[in-house]
Amino acid sequence: MTQLPDVSRAPTMTDVARVAGVSHQTVSRVLSDHPNVSAKTRAAVTQVIEQLGYRRNSAARALATRRTHTLGVIAVNTTLHGPASTVAGVQEAARDRGYLTSAVTLRTATQTALAEAMQHLAGWGVEGIVAVTPQRAAVRALAALEAPCPVVTVEGGHTLDLPGVSLDQNLGARLITEHLLASGHATVWHVAGPPDWLESEARTQGWEEALRDAGAEVPPLLRGDWSPLSGYQAGQQLAGRVRASRGQGAGLTAVFVANDQMALGVLRALREAGLRTPEDVAVAGFDDIPEAEFFPPPLTTIRQDFASLGRDSIGLLLDHIEGRTDESTHLVVAPELIVRASTARRIAPPGE
Amino acid sequence: MTQLPDVSRAPTMTDVARVAGVSHQTVSRVLSDHPNVSAKTRAAVTQVIEQLGYRRNSAARALATRRTHTLGVIAVNTTLHGPASTVAGVQEAARDRGYLTSAVTLRTATQTALAEAMQHLAGWGVEGIVAVTPQRAAVRALAALEAPCPVVTVEGGHTLDLPGVSLDQNLGARLITEHLLASGHATVWHVAGPPDWLESEARTQGWEEALRDAGAEVPPLLRGDWSPLSGYQAGQQLAGRVRASRGQGAGLTAVFVANDQMALGVLRALREAGLRTPEDVAVAGFDDIPEAEFFPPPLTTIRQDFASLGRDSIGLLLDHIEGRTDESTHLVVAPELIVRASTARRIAPPGE
DNA sequence: TCTGTGCTTGTTAGCGCTCACAATTTTACG
DNA sequence: CGTAAAATTGTGAGCGCTAACAAGCACAGA
Questions:
Q1: Domain of residue B30, residue span
Q2: Which segments of the protein form a coiled coil according to its record (chains A, B) (predicted)?
């Protein structure tokens, strides 16, 4: 019934104020939940806002407050499960905290590409950047760059003094290894990921430490490149060793594979070699990809909580932006061991 | 040597103007490549911009031009290869065209979730939205919503009158099917994806059409859910049929699987059943995921050019935003057949 | 020399919002 | 009741930029 202002463009705060019979500032107060507004006024304004379909202009707001409330995400390889989930987690967390995120996906993390991505984001006035950079080279390139805003890494390790958050890969590997040792295996073999990846290195380290702590023999390392094929090839080598090691001291009865995809390849190679899992060789993975539960047999693995990884990275970033902390902090998220059929307990260790 | 203005905050256009001895408007002209600026002035201004490290304030620009140059992306299931690549393609294309993108990832494409995502994006004044919604239900929900800006769908089919762009799934399926028929197979079996997915339906349709056009028998349909496990199960059924159909008219010698992941499962089931690929049964997939080339054997499949899918969707969206077209258009991207070892030509069709 | 045309530059007024402050009303309490 | 304190509301300026217009200048042709 009230007369509407010009329909040709989106209503402004002043339009709302005029219709509600208050000042534009009062409208602003209502919108930002300022305490000193009477309930009656607040209700009236809210009603007019609804009625006009008013929506705050974020550009004007950003100009006046000098805050864009926008964050940038730089990620490499977002087509893989891990990075893709992490980016999704970051975006969700940022959205919950009232920030807009914009993601830039890089094919390769060269310094040039990283610099360009930063320029792009800086041009839009992002207040902070989350960099999902699991490779050592990428983190190094990132650290060398002078950023126009705070930068937080995810899965970037804590070798350099960039603040960041990562999963406790080391602990995850220990959990897996200890679980296998506790299940009655004399030692645990390991198929690692590529050397430049921080995740890969930490998992290898955790595995080795767990073995040493338990006084178990440390078998030679096999290496893959995260792909199922490389796991398959490693699996073939392992199958050969199983036969060779039969009846000897610490036989090959358990394998910790650095990710689930490679584990898939290992499982298949073992199966083709006539070895049963877990009866002959127990196999564990890392990541808990959605398919892992349906592997033959269902895979024991480490679950990574990407949502909380995202939440923590955003929390850390906002701490820096809003000046709650100056030091470069490093948060670590605890992983969770998921035990499935591929590592069922050995009832009676045979032939030892 | 020139005196720098207050360092405590980022330099503004006026700062640049003062140092360069021109008006702020001239600086603005240089920045927006306006033709009527003398070479000398342009050079001087450019140099000062460099020197001060000046960067245009996008919020102020957006406020003055009433253009945010921001686009939204709404996607479901971005942890899968297809959607993840598509989103990356969209983001890259938008960036090339000078737009900022912000992505919202949904777990499930309910109408509520879609509406919330739109509200979020609308709050930041996005000028358009790209929705990556491969499920029929999601497109329907989207069409029912009244959007605050132009919306373009990717892989949303052209059933409803939303403009969009999609891969020619039908053609892809035909290419695969015709390739198999041309290789000497009497007919081609099919493992389809879940029924609610538009991609799945179009692939099934293309397969069926190609068979009918060639006058080939249309075998019963098997169905999976995109996962390797479901492919494995379908593969087991297929293996059973192979034995049953030996020596009969149109035997089971070729299978078109609706995506590469399921094809992986099929390959394994066939292998376990003692059947060789491609000698006994040829297998083809769809998507060309990075692993497909390394499957045992390397998989014949359909490559989807996600980058051009992204580029086209952004092109279409900007056409709508900038008023170059009013009608809802639907673009279709042609797929590419990648022939690999899994469908090697049959030299002499045995036993027929 | 004068006028007209095109090129180059400067001036002014907002875009829609928030901040700091001022003005007004209400409430509290001696 | 009166007055101080608190709560509520309004006013003006300005965030950094672009659009529209105005002004200055050089150069051509009459």
A1: 13-56
A2: none
